[in-house]
Amino acid sequence: MPATSVTSQQLETQIKEQGDKVRSAKGSGAPKDEIQGLVAELLKLKADYKSLTGNDPPGPAPQQSSKQKKKEKKAPAPKPKIEAGVTRLGIEAKKFEDLPNWYSQVITKSEMIEYYDVSGCYILRPWSFFIWEVIQQWFDKGIKALGVQNCYFPMFVSNAALEKEKTHIADFAPEVAWVTRSGDSELAEPIAIRPTSETVMYPSYASWVQSHRDLPIKLNQWCNVVRWEFKHPQPFLRTREFLWQEGHSAFATKEEAHEEVFEILDLYHGVYKELLAIPTVKGKKTEKEKFAGGDFTTTVEGYVSATGRGIQGATSHHLGQNFSKMFNIQFEDPDSTTGDKLFAHQNSWGLSTRSIGVVVMVHGDNKGLVLPPRVAFYQAVIVPCGVTDANKEQLNTHCTEMKKSLQKAGIRSHADLRENYNTGWKFNHWELKGVPVRIEIGPRDLKNNQVVVVRRDNGVKATLQNENLEDQLNKLLNTIHDDMYNRALVERDANMAVTTSWEEFCQFLDQKKIIQAPYCGDIACEEIIKKDSARTEIVDDKAPAMGAKSLCIPFEQPADATKETCIQQNCCKPAQSYTLFGRSY
Asked: Chain-centre distance of CA 335, in angstroms?
């Protein structure tokens, strides 16, 4: 049922405006996923109207018949005027005015993503996949230092394995994709494609573990998973198939398992800080938001200022003995004289390609991508300037030699010597793709044994001498990384509020902030907080309307929450902790 404060006239207006958006999106050749989302919203508004009035919403003006159309001579539509030399290379939407369109343009025009003909699935092009490769290398080194080994398990799951842990799989049930046919034949039993791998891996753990000497098991796999059921896919952020790593550990003692949970969380925090230049809040999920079937979940949470939403970066779960009891992962108690059995204590932990989307959203600007240097495919691009027939060979040779010198020093670099594009086009192209440093070399720079460097993150230009250029650039790249992180941190902190007042809580939420507020820990209260903080009236179609959900219970608390009552306005129970709330992805 629609909210009672919305009148039929307001709904008619919303239906008309939404219809215009659908037609505009179709006319402009918008991505299929975007159009589907707009159509779904239009159908919902029409259903609300019928529920409120009992009638179908008024339709558009009746269309002319084909015969009437033939009788009228249609005036030719004026051709759009295109200025000489103007291309559509650049980003045509503003990040803080039209984020969905901006995001779609950035990831396609920067050559990160190619859309695919299966909804919710995307092609990761080399420009984005390289980021994932860097994350893999860094994280893999970290987990191997903890004794974790890589492996691979099948992507198919039997129905019997899924049924073993109904509590766990219940959260994934709507998202599970099933294989039901082979060629023209129906399978005797449907086979699921993994939404996650607990039920795939743990039967093997049970057969491998007999004694405490068989523990710990610390395995990780780099793989893909499929989660099918959702309405509005977004590349990187919410996709039907995505890449991730998932670690699964089993220990003889709870203490060992707990220690690993936080070691892995620190590595996830490091991925975002040391590679992606993104600050995160480390914390624990509430009972409502924790991993299904686990004892507790820890998380790193990011913040996207353009939408005012939090975004989960990665999670590390302590599963307790819940899964080991279900899958019979047990061993003989070394202290028992009667052969008593003990169940293993388990963890699971995962990080996905969603992290790439977070980079785009946090650092990108109206010119396109802004890549942190440590994950950029090219860290520096060299562009010859002032090229003439007389100096072309000399400039190109110098640029090529400089590229080799930088590469030898460990700086990923590229010399753009293409002759079919002018210098300005090249500048815009590499800015859009987010290359951290542009190196300009002209005839005067050759003469003075220098280069001009331009930072992508802030546009600042500087002249550097060629002597020790490699060292200077390495220092500059580290400075760029630190500056990007600090800017994101300042922006995050400026939009993270603390309050004990429900009125302030809602005001901060509408100001696109994330809020730390005292919370009693009850699931029922959290559901009420989300419901009561949602907008019931549409004041601005660009303003967020969803209610606040818990993001995490930060490990670093702003104050002693036990002195306060729960932020839920009708709850009188004492708070257990300050919990971070916000709208989220």
From this structure: 47
